[in-house]
Design brief:
The chain is α/β, with parallel strands linked by helices and 232 residues long. The chain is built from nine helices and five strands. The chain is 53% helix and 15% strand. The chain is globular, with a radius of gyration of 26 Å.
């Protein structure tokens, strides 16, 4: 059984959030998040979006700025983590989190949560880098932008949080489709579960209807008995 087989079986019942962070560096202990973006979606498509720059309270290192294009001027006047991170938590709720090289982003969010004395994330997580390796083994590279090019996913603003989150969402859906092709038995199992659930719901509705009819008949009979004149 694959690491992400459960995704197919729960795809129609769960809410997902693909997200990405841009940071001042690589160490979640000493470095900070400067942008976080996400797209919340379900089996019917995107539902809402989230994106904010975050003032880290420290100068933006030149090395990081060269990668993501975020400058000190762009961060001036932006909300601090104490405001932005709780907003992000409200946005994701209990949805399944999806990120590329997920430990990086999860550790950075947890780092910010720790500084705010808030609990760590407990959401279920899908790492699209590992997911892609599972369903597309043997590719030369598994970086997000390389996979986007391979699968025809257009990156509009690479290394910016919201667009990377969108690319991650689309890659996730590509991987889900590939998993269905590799393991058609999973799809058959899901269809059987949904069919049984629908049958159970119809049966329960029928029982509720019959119970209501029985109660109405009883009420009618009771009224007839009380309305009938009793000879003395």
């Amino acid at each position: 059984m694959g690491q992400y087989d459960w995704v197919v079986s729960e795809l129609n019942t769960l809410s997902f959030t693909a997200f990405d962070t841009e940071t001042t560096g690589l160490d979640p202990v000493s470095q900070r998040i400067v942008e976080i973006g996400g797209i919340r979606f379900d089996s019917k498509g995107p539902r809402s979006r989230f994106n904010t720059l975050i003032n880290p309270g420290t100068p933006m290192p030149a090395e990081a700025s060269r990668i993501n294009g975020i400058t000190d001027a762009m961060l001036t006047g932006k909300p601090e983590a104490a405001i932005a991170i709780p907003d992000f938590l409200r946005f994701i709720g209990d949805s399944v989190l999806i990120a590329h090289n997920a430990p990086f982003d999860i550790n950075f969010v947890n780092g910010e949560l720790g500084r705010l004395r808030l609990p760590r994330l407990t959401n279920k997580v899908v790492d699209t880098r590992l997911f892609a390796k599972e369903v597309f083994p043997g590719l030369p590279k598994y970086a997000l932008q390389d996979l986007a090019v391979r699968f025809g996913i257009q990156a509009l603003e690479a290394h910016r949080a919201e667009d990377d989150a969108r690319v991650c969402m689309e890659l996730f859906l590509v991987c889900v489709q590939r998993l269905k092709e590799l393991k058609p038995g999973l799809v058959a199992e899901v269809n059987a579960i949904e069919k049984n659930a629908q049958a159970d719901e119809e049966k329960n509705n029928s029982i509720r209807t019959e119970a209501t009819v029985s109660e109405d008949l009883f009420d009618d009979l009771e009224e007839d008995l009380f309305d009938e004149e009793i000879p003395i």
